[in-house]
Design a protein that fits this description.
This protein has 1 helix and 7 strands. It has 82 residues and is mainly β.
């Protein structure tokens, strides 16, 4: 089985090629509620010393969004506090 490597919150993670965001969330044991996913283009994290913008992916697109090798993924989890 072929794998790719994506960077999740600055940590390298190996996933099966053709994995979706939903697959990644399951693999990492994140809850599907209360999180946001932002992704930058594959292999394009830095440009002229500046980090490129990330695109927030709506949750309804997670099952269909196929990850690419070397993509930079940011997972933000909501927390409660006061």
């Amino acid at each position: 089985m072929e794998t790719i490597t994506v960077n999740v919150n600055d940590k390298a993670v190996s996933v099966t090629a053709q994995s979706t965001i939903t697959d990644l969330i399951r693999q990492l044991n994140f809850p599907s509620q209360g999180i946001a996913i932002a992704i930058s283009s594959s292999g394009d994290q830095m440009r002229d010393g500046q980090e490129t913008a990330r695109e927030v992916i709506p949750q309804k697109q997670w099952p269909d969004y196929t990850l690419a090798d070397r993509q930079d993924i940011l997972i933000i989890q909501a927390t409660q506090g006061g």
